[in-house]
Amino acid sequence: MKYIIVLGVFICCAKQIYSDNPKVAAVKNFKVITGPEVYDKDIRPNLGENASVQVNITMHVTDYEFNPITRTFSLLLCLIVVILQEMTMVMYFRQKWTDPRLVSNTLTADVIGGKSIIERVWTPDTFFSNSLDVNIMKYPTRNLFAKVLHNGEVYYSERIKVVFRCGPQISIKSDECDLEIESCK
Ligand SMILES: *[C@@H]1O[C@H](CO)[C@@H](O)[C@H](O)[C@H]1NC(C)=O
Ligand SMILES: *[C@@H]1O[C@H](CO)[C@@H](O)[C@H](O)[C@H]1NC(C)=O
């Protein structure tokens, strides 16, 4: 009877080791290769090779609204009315780049997660240069999706609300509005 119990425990442990899901292995490997001793997220990809890093951006706009703002100035005896347009936009702002330090030669599964995943790696310092306000959607959790592929590709998507100035408009009917995106690094 004792033998049976011992054998039972062994089979149970063995099953746990060999049923190690590739997705679990990918997360564990990701944590090793982004550990503080081996990965510095303040150093951007390709910096050592003096090469740039290409960040591809797409936006999935789910809602937008024009907010016309009228400003009146007096110049000598004339009243000048300027119509400024602002726009409020809700979107999934998606960025994609490749970080060669995250390449895994042994694993094929991808690491999928949110804030805790993206906080371990370098991220671009992209910003909207004509924005008046930017809000991230953070309740009940950050509306953030991150994916690190085994080939080093990082995919970072976050739902945000941006308010930005369109520039002076001649006609209120004009529905053109430029959102400017810049990066400093
Ligand atoms: C990168 O640039 C620096 C300074 O211009 C130079 O000293 C270094 O050799 C370059 N490295 C590579 C890998 O080209
Ligand atoms: C970014 O876009 C370019 C051009 O479409 C493509 O060649 C490149 O592979 C893309 N990079 C990533 C990381 O998706």
From TrEMBL:
Keywords per UniProt: Signal
Pfam families linked to this entry: Neur_chan_LBD
TM spans (from-to): none
GO MF annotation terms: extracellular ligand-gated monoatomic ion channel activity
Signal peptide per UniProt: 1-19
Keyword Signal attributed: yes
Record domain Neurotransmitter-gated ion-channel ligand-binding: where: 38-183
Keyword Disulfide bond: no
One annotated Gene Ontology cellular component of this protein: membrane
Taxonomy, superkingdom: Eukaryota
Protein name from the UniProt record: Neurotransmitter-gated ion-channel ligand-binding domain-containing protein
Annotated organism of origin: Oppiella nova
